[in-house]
Amino acid sequence: MKNIATKLNNGYQLFCGYILGLSVALLIAIIILRETVGISYDFLTDATVWLSVWAALLFSGPLYGERGHVSIKFVLERLSGRTRLGVELFNNLCTLTYVVTTTIGGVLLVRTLFSQHQVYPRYIAIPMWTVQISVPIGLGLFSIYALVEFYRIIQRMRA
Q1: pLDDT in tens, 28-75
Q2: Largest CB tally within 10 Å, which of 14, 79, 111, 131?
Q3: Alpha helix ranges (H) inside the chain
Q4: How is residue 127 annotated by DSSP?
Q5: Distance in angstroms (rounded) separating the CA atoms of residues 68 and 49
């Protein structure tokens, strides 16, 4: 079971890397088009930003799961035993509360954008929900990683 979870996690991280790579490649193509031919499309510039945001939000969960997130590590390194676990638990509960409430807010936002048919006014009318859906998806997955970390902390506290 752990092997399957590792493979899924690695595949998911690779997918996020491809999204980020696509964003960089698109940005380079835009620069080349602008400098050589003099063509510049707003929606392509927006797409690079949207893809970067998608990659960042989707990758935040695995990053948290590997303890690569920004945190107060220097404080944790000075603590030990039950005190350290207590601070880790508090940090995890704060993170979990934030990502769950932001996920719920993102779902409500996407539902509103979808029901009101909101679009970005560009050459091509791009529905806003297609971009904004990265918030509930990315932070929903982040919530799963935070729950797994919560479980691990509880297991360490019981040991």
Answers
A1: 888 888 888 877 777 777 778 888 888 877 777 777 666 655 555 656
A2: 131
A3: 2-36, 42-65, 73-78, 81-115, 128-132, 134-158
A4: E
A5: 23
Q: Quick check: 76 pLDDT over 70?
A: no
Report d(CA 58, CA 63) in Å as an integer: 10
The distance in angstroms from the start CA to the end CA of the chain is 22
Three-state DSSP class for residue 139: helix
- The Cα 25–Cα 71 span in angstroms is 31
Other CB atoms within a 10 A radius of the CB of residue 112 amount to 13
Of 111, 107, 108, which Cα lies nearest the Cα of 127? Answer: 111
The helix or strand, by DSSP H or E, that contains position 119, with its residue range, turns out to be strand 119-120
Residues present in the chain in total = 159
CA distances 145 to 52, 118, 123, Å, are 21, 31, 38
